[in-house]
Amino acid sequence: MEIVLDHVSYTYQAGTPFAGDGLRDVSVTIPDGAYTAIIGQTGSGKSTLLQHLNALLKPTAGTVKIGDRLITAKTSNKNLKPLRAKVGLVFQFAENQLFEETVEKDVAFGPKNFGATEEQALTQAHHALQLVGIDEQYYQQSPFDLSGGQMRRVAIAGVLAMEPELLILDEPTAGLDPKGRAELMGLFATLHREQGIGIVLVTHQMEDVANFAERVLVMAHGQLIKQGTPAEVFADPAWLAAQHLGLPRAAQFARQLQAKGVPLPAVPLTEKALAQELIQVLHPEGGRPS
Ligand SMILES: Nc1ncnc2c1ncn2[C@@H]1O[C@H](COP(=O)(O)OP(=O)(O)OP(=O)(O)O)[C@@H](O)[C@H]1O
């Protein structure tokens, strides 16, 4: 499902002395099935933008077209349910929204609320729990007895149980350990690759952008200031630094090596690309490193 923002502005607490700009004149297309990353420093408008993608917020000015639904300031909250099922939003620290007595009930809540029978809802819940790697032995436990990482997975399963076409993720790995982070990022990549689910990921992890995203949107002060492939966005380190954004670690390391005279042919964005370049430099004839 394609999403098109056309001159979207959003003002928080409009008409009060506390009014503040969340978004300023943002026009962008999120293509159907794409893996898009959104980066930008704190307060740049990333979360505000995300909440427009499933009409949780409606633009103060401009329009948002989500599939064939046009959302404007005047759109009523009625009949937005089908859209919210297709566009699944995983909030920051999603585990804070768990509330049911058991893991199974929590994950089945969404489908049931959207009209699925008890049996259907449970089938969808079990499938989603399998996808996120939560074992059957936990289904009847309280979600609050699980570890933080497991709780996060259960919350994500609750969104996946709705079988969304597009998954919107607001810093989904924040606060997890490296293994938990890698596993979740692997899950999203698999959902994208094997099931064609579109992903919109807000992250401060430039490695995740380099490893997974097809396109990157850069936000600052509520505006979209750049968009392109990771290679395009990471091509200008000075510009990134001015936006208080960094390079992926592999690129930082490669630049340090270049500064010391190691003749790397290009600045690699991922560890894999860096390793390949180093092998080439060390073994230009293509021999295997011994
Ligand atoms: N509920 C709110 N009421 C008033 N202003 C808000 C509210 N939420 C966000 N803002 C303001 O809107 C602007 C954009 O905030 P937003 O949360 O979208 O940024 P962000 O890029 O997601 O930040 P972070 O990386 O910290 O999550 C900021 O200036 C913020 O202070």
Automatic annotation (TrEMBL):
Q: Which domain of life is it from?
A: Bacteria
Pfam families the record matches: ABC_tran
Keywords in alphabetical order: ATP-binding, Cell membrane, Membrane, Nucleotide-binding, Translocase, Transport
Coarse class of the primary localization is: membrane
InterPro entries attached to this UniProt entry: AAA+_ATPase (IPR003593), ABC_transporter-like_ATP-bd (IPR003439), ABC_transporter-like_CS (IPR017871), ABC_transpr_CbiO/EcfA_su (IPR015856), ECF_ABC_transporter_ATP-bd (IPR050095), EcfA2 (IPR030946), P-loop_NTPase (IPR027417)
One function term, GO molecular function aspect = ATP hydrolysis activity
Q: Which residues form the ABC transporter domain?
A: 3-246
What the entry lists under Gene3D superfamilies is as follows: P-loop containing nucleotide triphosphate hydrolases
GO cellular component terms given for this protein: ATP-binding cassette (ABC) transporter complex
Q: How does it assemble?
A: Forms a stable energy-coupling factor (ECF) transporter complex composed of 2 membrane-embedded substrate-binding proteins (S component), 2 ATP-binding proteins (A component) and 2 transmembrane proteins (T component).
Job description of the protein: ATP-binding (A) component of a common energy-coupling factor (ECF) ABC-transporter complex.
To which protein family does this belong? Answer: Belongs to the ABC transporter superfamily. Energy-coupling factor EcfA family.
Q: What is this protein called?
A: Energy-coupling factor transporter ATP-binding protein EcfA2
Say which species the protein is native to: Schleiferilactobacillus perolens DSM 12744
The lineage is: Bacteria, Bacillati, Bacillota, Bacilli, Lactobacillales
